[in-house]
C-alpha cells in the first residue's frame, strides 16, 4: 500500500496513518465519482465527511457508509481497492475495521 498519493492535475491527496485513510479533493470545481484508492483487504468505515451539512457541506456524501476493499488487477498486479465519491473541495477519513480474533 502506498503511503501517499498525489494527483497534481486532479488536485487529489490521499495518505494513510495507521488504520486511517485520508482523501482530499482540493479542486475548486471538479468532482470525482469513482476515485480508486489502493488499501489493504478489509472493510472501511466513513468517520469524517467534510461534505456533511454538519460542517457546512452540501450533503452529497452519505454519512455512515462502509466500503469493502475488493480485489482488482492494476498494472498487472493484484491489489485491493475502494472507490470513493470525492466532490470538489471536500475531504473524507476512513477507518479500517478491526478484525475480531
Mean pLDDT level: 92
How are the strands of the largest sheet arranged?
Answer: 1-2-3-9-5-6
Query: Helices and strands, in N-to-C order?
Result: EEEEEEEEE
Label the overall shape. Answer: globular
What fraction strand? over 45%
What does this 3D model show about the protein?
- The structure is a single chain.
- This protein is mainly beta and 101 residues long.
- The protein has strands at residues 4-7, 12-17, 20-25, 32-38, 43-49, 66-68, 70-74, 77-86, 90-96.
- A six-stranded antiparallel beta sheet has the order 1-2-3-9-5-6, with no helix packed on it.
- Strand 2 (12-17) and strand 3 (20-25) form a beta hairpin.
- The model has no long low-confidence stretch (mean pLDDT 92).
Question: What are the main properties of this structure?
Answer:
101 residues, mainly beta, six-stranded antiparallel sheet, three-stranded antiparallel sheet, globular
SSE inventory with pairings:
Elements: E1 4-7, E2 12-17, E3 20-25, E4 32-38, E5 43-49, E6 66-68, E7 70-74, E8 77-86, E9 90-96
Summarize the structure.
The chain starts with a strand and ends in a 5-residue tail after the last strand. The chain has strands at 4-7, 12-17, 20-25, 32-38, 43-49, 66-68, 70-74, 77-86, 90-96.
Amino acid at each position: 500500500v502506498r503511503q501517499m498519493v498525489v494527483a497534481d492535475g486532479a488536485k487529489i491527496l490521499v495518505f494513510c496513518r495507521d488504520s486511517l485513510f485520508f482523501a482530499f479533493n482540493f479542486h475548486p470545481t471538479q468532482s470525482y465519482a469513482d476515485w480508486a484508492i489502493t488499501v489493504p483487504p478489509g472493510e472501511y468505515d466513513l468517520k469524517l465527511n467534510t461534505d456533511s451539512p454538519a460542517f457546512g457541506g452540501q450533503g452529497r456524501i452519505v454519512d455512515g457508509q462502509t466500503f469493502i476493499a475488493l480485489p482488482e488487477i492494476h498494472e498487472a498486479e493484484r491489489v485491493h481497492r475502494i472507490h470513493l465519491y470525492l466532490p470538489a473541495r471536500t475531504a473524507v477519513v476512513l477507518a479500517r475495521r478491526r478484525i475480531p480474533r
